[in-house]
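fyi for ur records
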Amino acid sequence: MKLFEPLSLRPVYAGFSGLLANGLNPSKVEELLGADPFVRLRAGAPFALVARTYDKGSWVYRFQADLGEGEQLYYVKVVREKEVWQVMLGRMFSSQGLKRPFHYPKKFIRMLFAPSEAAISWQVAQFLYQHDIATPEFVALLIRRRKGLREEYLISRAVPRLLQANLKEYLVRQFGPGADHYDLQAKRRLLAELAHFLRRLLELPIHFPDLKLHNLLLQEPKPGKFRFLIMDLNEVSEKKPKQEEVIILDRFNRSIPFTDVITQTDRLRFLKAYLAAGKDSRDGRSLSQTIAARSRIHQKPHKPFGPLKK
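which gave:
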């Protein structure tokens, strides 16, 4: 499957083209969002703001409604190019931007030809389903242009039985300094499963440039059974960089919260489990030293994996 081939979008309403999952009623989607969804979302109930990312021109709202499948909880992610351009222009004429006169003009040119972020997320999600990798389930994709600028809405079903907003928050709450007594073996099993999940992602023929703990969800479908889900798929690429493994492991390690409970020993076990997941015969000490060397070169101070003990 090629991820970035144009999707076959069909007219939905009010100038929007897109895709709807089976079971969704277009008239109910139109009734809920209206001709100007962004105004409707910002007006409040039934919509509640969850997050905003200024430099990406994106908002995430939560709402409960019946879109043809019975009343349930949904999330909608909004991406508006207008806000992205405003942020970029502000940065281009800032003191830092003026020191890099060609940086932002190049980004503007790339933006003109960039594919739809919502469409990429939709396509990547379909690809991951085929490879048995869990991700929030998208049910509606709506795209239109107004005055030449793209406006996108991506609706997903809420993930049931989540243990926390994201995996990073779960680790802090469960194993951080303020955590109550916990099962050490349970923590080790969780980190080992996380290492196996990361290995599966890196073996796919796509690259996850924003693969960090806060972009993973942890679900407990049954007591004691965990399931990882990956979100924020809009930056996924078919181009894998050189040393992808080292880049991802370094970034992933830095996203793990440094507490008295997620210890250096835990990190070393995580790396061993990662190598074991691929039946990898490489020396873990060599890989950990490569990761540490990269972090020193990029001047990103953090506690590295460190040398593995025999």
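The chain has a mean pLDDT of 86. thats all i got for now
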